[in-house]
Amino acid sequence: MAGWTGRLGLDRTADAAVSTTALHWLLPPDLAAMYAEVATVLRPGGLLLNGDHLAEDETSAVLDRLGWALIERETQRRPAPDGGETWSSWWKAVAADPELGPLAARPERSAIGAGHHGSPSGRLSVHVAALQKAGFGEVGTLWQSGANRLLCAVLPG
Length: 157
Fold this sequence. Notes:
Blueprint: E1 14-20, H1 28-39, E2 42-53, H2 61-77, H3 87-96, H4 100-104, H5 107-112, H6 124-133, E3 138-145, E4 148-154
Parallel strand pairs: 1-2
Antiparallel strand pairs: 2-4, 3-4
């Protein structure tokens, strides 16, 4: 959806843009376009922070498997606080919702699966390449636990 940043109503350039657990679902061309558009509203030296599930490259099959095993084990050891929602209970609620259920059952959604393993932009290298192409200078992981990471990109100042 090109032009979405114009609807933000910004009266100056932004210091940072933040996203969590969403961008891995975008198709790579859409991800690249979104990063390029975000770069137009950030000030020089501005940050893009993306907390997301970004696995190692496909050539790192062992690291990829170990990262997902770590996340799965951590999830088993640490249940949702106060009976809160888990990833699987959230998807069950979506499937039961009369409006969202049909969208969740679409072939492209079920092909991806609820475990993020087939997300369209679920690879770190896809994000790094798109950010660099969008003009971000430094790109790197600030925090990581398995494939869960906080990716930071800095516009040149």
